[in-house]
């Protein structure tokens, strides 16, 4: 009994550091956010009071919330598939024996290690009207300049291009590692059977990459909903909320307008959306990942 008890105590002691961090930085903030979302904003003459679902009703009547949610949906649809497809293509390229392969790998991965603020400032130089690199190239070809970040029709695609440029190299590393773990005998056997490169990729390599794809997809979804730094430097959500995304709207609501309880309600919605998407990804891709 003493030996069994000591094993239980030892196990709980080993789990305690991770459990404390998980409770302190994940579970407690989540519960506190849910509770805060049910209270009103405190003022100098009126303390905060319990209002139930009022903040959520206010959210449903908020046109900016729906615009931001639509922006985030388009942003995710535009960046996630493109980043993953580009990462696979880059991984296929640098997985082959090509001249300067190490330099190509480093070039692909370099945007990933750059700080977000630095990336935003680099692309701000590209997008600046008239004097930016894109407009200078366009002028040399005889085209007129364009305010990429000031036009509601182009600001969100411009942010998407920058995000894809930064994230594709990060995802490439995971695909490259997965490709290098695929036994070379599978490729040799497919070649002996007369299979071409596309057939081998579609029928052999890509199914073996499904666990990596699930991991990358979850990270890509999370990244598409946590963009703040780039928007703060480039557009601040403008013009007319055309580039405003959900997390930046939460940040702006909490720290610019000091509507912390309304921001808490927005945060709860964000957490619910991420949880639903994660569950859908697991249920949809689980069969392909585990081959059942």
TrEMBL record:
The lineage of its organism: Bacteria, Pseudomonadati, Thermodesulfobacteriota, Desulfobacteria, Desulfobacterales. It comes from Desulfosarcina widdelii. It is a multi-pass membrane protein. GO terms for cellular component: plasma membrane. It is found in: Cell membrane. Pfam families: BPD_transp_1 (PF00528). Keywords: Cell membrane, Membrane, Transmembrane, Transmembrane helix, Transport. This is ABC transporter permease. InterPro entries: ABC_transporter_permease, MetI-like, MetI-like_sf. Belongs to the binding-protein-dependent transport system permease family. The chain crosses the membrane at residues 12-31, 73-94, 106-126, 155-178, 199-222, 262-285. Gene3D superfamilies: MetI-like.
């Amino acid at each position: 009994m003493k030996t069994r008890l000591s094993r239980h105590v030892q196990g709980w002691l080993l789990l305690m550091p991770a459990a404390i961090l998980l409770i302190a930085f994940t579970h407690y903030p989540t519960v506190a956010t849910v509770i805060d979302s049910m209270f009103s904003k405190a003022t100098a003459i009126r303390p905060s009071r319990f209002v139930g679902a009022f903040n959520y009703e206010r959210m449903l009547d908020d046109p900016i919330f729906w615009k931001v949610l639509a922006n985030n949906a388009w942003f995710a649809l535009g960046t996630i598939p493109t980043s993953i497809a580009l990462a696979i293509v880059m991984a296929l390229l640098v997985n082959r024996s090509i001249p300067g392969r190490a330099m190509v790998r480093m070039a692909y991965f370099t945007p990933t290690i750059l700080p977000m603020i630095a990336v935003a400032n680099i692309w701000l130089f590209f997008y600046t009207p008239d004097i930016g690199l894109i407009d200078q190239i366009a002028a040399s070809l005889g085209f007129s300049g364009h305010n990429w970040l000031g036009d509601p029709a182009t600001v969100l695609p411009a942010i998407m291009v920058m995000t894809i440029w930064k994230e594709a190299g990060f995802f490439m590393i995971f695909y490259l590692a997965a490709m290098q773990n695929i036994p070379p005998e599978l490729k040799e056997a497919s070649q002996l059977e007369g299979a071409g490169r596309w057939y081998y990729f579609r029928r052999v390599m890509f199914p073996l990459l499904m666990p990596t794809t699930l991991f990358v997809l979850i990270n890509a979804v999370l990244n598409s909903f946590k963009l703040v730094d780039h928007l703060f430097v480039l557009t601040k959500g403008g013009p007319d909320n055309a580039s405003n995304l959900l997390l930046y709207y939460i940040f702006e609501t909490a720290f610019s307008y000091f509507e912390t309880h309304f921001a808490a309600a927005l945060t709860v919605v964000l957490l619910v959306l991420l949880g639903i998407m994660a569950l859908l990804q697991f249920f949809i891709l689980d069969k392909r990942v585990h081959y059942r």
